[in-house]
Each structure stands twice: as structure tokens, then as C-alpha cells.
């Protein structure tokens, strides 16, 4: 067999279910459809709608509302694939477990490692966003925290440098405040002491709640979701009276590239529906409830997102939306300070629930990887009293809390999306494998089958024809680039077209289902819109992961 085949050793569904049932202590099975939908909404309607939606609207204008629809469609294809997997393999571990069944151990490790990046990094964004809303809420009550306790070192230093070079006139009010903070912050030697204390503290508190138990986490999540949906509906209905239709013109001021530049921010707003699948073992009937919960979540959240984007871009000009708290900002701008205050308070609670769900998901992935022998045994330890993965939960708290104290948010948003797209593509590909091998024949839920034998190829040919006939600008742009520039900026686009060509051939030969193929292609296309620097960091992250796998997991794997 040799080393090569042992890298791709697979687990059977029966084996995974047996391992989950045999693990010490076991997790408490208490979640139903309503709880799962609530956890999903808690994760999806989080930092995305309360912070990154402003940046996306600033770049793309009102047309970003259409980007939410397009991204939701990509997510629906993926959610259907997740739902089929959750129905076939109803255990914790999300895409990691699914990859173990479909592609074997090496891919399972890679996807597990990518998910660690997705969950940990997205939680850092959520914690930093929470801090910004919390600080602005306190200001509303007349309490002002010292600047050096509420921001990150890098932003303050950059603002100070800009002040030195361009003078105060070139700085926004926030940059001016950051520059002054840098000058007045306490110092250790030459180093200014600047840290985001609220972000660190909220991570600590949420980690403690998740450690105590799933029942407490569920109750807290359900309460916060009701409040969160109330706030979003309040923004939509109250804001509708202040919409000025002229703000919607031009609808797409920066064209398609402007709209697509918001992909990372918009996609970040949807990340979270997959976190439902990490709680499969705590679900009463995962095979029936998981698929329903995922689809309900996406439909509810897409409708809310489209409406809220139209209201935001209708209340103020899109050029003013490059702020970290856009929902509160648009009401302040319209003189509705009371509403802005209500939104600030509610946003703090709403973002807390997103933090809760991610902190719940991350340790369960580590726990599952540890059960398989790929991570240190301590990660699989279940607390005898609380029935939660105790050690993994504590480590998650440190991994998220420490970077949240010191780093800036925009660095993390794109990075989260890279890891997630990667996981989503493997899950959609995994469903094609399950169907091809007949593994999911007895699953209670399957992705609706639409034969792609001719359809995938037909759409491929039509797309090429469309570019030749109507894409003269795109062709001219490619012709103007040197080979080195194409490799640097367009490599992923080339990968996208090659993948589509390969899937055309495979679909013809194996009668692949069209929906998982559509999931692979839409996620891969959205991936091409992310910057090259994010890819570089992601590749470095994967390289570190492979070193750990070959030095520890490969030899200690249960399958070895």
C-alpha cells in the first residue's frame, strides 16, 4: 500500500458513529430545530450585518444588496451539501468529519486546520467589532474609556505617521483621535502601551459561558437572537421612513468590480450557517433537523440583509458608510440619536451571540480531531460535570482573546473568507463523491438531483461565448498584463476555468448532480475576488498545519 495510500485512509460512516458513541462522557443531546435555527441566526446575523456591511456598501453602493443575493445562492448550494453530510454523518466536526469520509485523512486534516483558521479568525473580528460598539454605547451613557485601552497598536501608529506626513487636515476624526491616543498612551521604554481591552474581556466571559455548558449557551443564544431580530426589523421599518430614493442613484457607482470588492465583507456576513453542523452530536434528531435548520437560516438572513442594505444606502449616501458601526451611524446622521443609542446597546448584545456560537464551534472541531488521534489527547477531554470539551474550550479562549487585544479587524476579514471558501468547496466536492460511491443511499436528506451530464458543459460553453461576445474590456485587460502579472493577479481565475472544464468532463462521464457542482464553481469564483496577500497567509497557515500533521498526527492517527 505504501505511505501514499495511508495519507488518504478513510473512515467509514459506521466507524465515525461508533467512535462518537464510545467517547468518554458524551455530549448532552438537547437541541431541536428551533434551537439550531436560533444558533444559526446567532452566528450569521452578527458582526457582518453590524459592521462589515458598511464597508461593502461604501465600495459597491446600493448594488451590494444584489451581492447578498448572489452570495446567498452560493451559500444555499453549499448548505444543501452540508445538510446531506450532516444527515449521513451526524457527529461533531463539521466539514472536517465529512472530508474524512469522502477524501481521506490528509484532506480531513487540511480542512480541519482551515476550519480552525475560519472559526478563530472570525471570532477575532467579532470580538473587535463588539468592542467598537461597546465603547460607543458607553459614550452614549457619558462614560469614556481611555483611548489606549480601546484600540490596536497598528491603527494608532498608522494614524500618527499620517499626521506627521500630511497634517491634521488630511485625517478623519477617528484617525485624529487614534494619532492623539498614540502620542498620549503610557509607554514602556519606546513602546506605546495600546490594547483593545474590551475585546479581550468579552472573549474571556464568553469562553467561561461555553465552558459551563451547551444548555446555558442555548438559553443565552435564544434570548439574544430574539433581541437581535427585533433590532434588525426596527432598523428596517424605522429607517424606511427616512429613505431618500435619490441616494440609490447611481445604483452601482463603481460598476461590477466595486460590487465584487465587497465579496469578503458580504461573505463574512453569511459565515456561520456551517457552525450549526458542529453541534450535530448535541442535536436530538440531527438527520431530520440539521437540513431544515440550515435552509431556514439562510432564507431568513438573506431577506433581512437585502432589506437592511437598501435601507442603509437609502438613508445616507453610500460614500459615508465606511464606518465600523453603520447601523447606529445612519440614524445619528439623520438626527435620530435615541434610535442610534438603542441600536448601539442592542448591537453589543447581538454581536455577543455571534461570538458565543463561534466559541462553541471551534472546541468541538478540535475535540473531533483529537478523538481521531490527529491532535493531543487532552483536546478530546469532556468535562465530567458540564459535558463540554473543557480543555479545547480554554485553549480557544486564549487563541481568540490574545490576538483580539492587539490586531486590527480588516486584516482578519479576508483571511476568514479564504479558509471558509476552501472548506465549502471540499464539502460540495465530497457530496459528489458520496453520491458516486453510493455512501449516502440511506441518508434522510439528499441534495435535490438535477443531472449535470450536459448542463455543466452547456453553461461552460455559453460562458466562454458570452466573454468573447460581450467581454471586450476583460479581454483587453488580460492582453495588457505581462505573464508575471497574470501569475500574480489572475492565477485563481485560471484555476476557476480549468476546474470548470474538468467538472464538465467528469459530469458528462459520471452524471454528476448539478447543484454541488454549482456550489464548487460559485465558491471558487467568489474566491478569485480575494486579494493575493490573503492567499499567501493561508498557504503559510496550511504549511504550518502540514508540519504538525506529519510530526504528530500521521503516526498517532487511530487509523494508523
TrEMBL record:
Gene3D superfamilies, per the entry? Amino acid/polyamine transporter I
Tell me where it resides: Membrane
Keyword set includes Mitochondrion = no
What Pfam families does the annotation carry?
Answer: AA_permease_2, AA_permease_C
Indicate the principal place this protein occupies in or around the cell: membrane
Query: How does this chain sit within the bilayer?
Result: Multi-pass membrane protein
Alphabetically ordered keywords of this record? Membrane, Transmembrane, Transmembrane helix, Transport
Q: Which residues cross the membrane?
A: 36-58, 64-83, 95-116, 191-213, 225-243, 255-273, 293-318, 338-361, 386-406, 412-434, 454-471, 491-509, 530-552
PANTHER family linked to this entry: CATIONIC AMINO ACID TRANSPORTER 4, INNER MEMBRANE TRANSPORTER YGJI-RELATED
Under what name is this protein listed? Amino acid permease
Which species is this record about? Answer: Dyadobacter sandarakinus
Lineage here is: Bacteria, Pseudomonadati, Bacteroidota, Cytophagia, Cytophagales
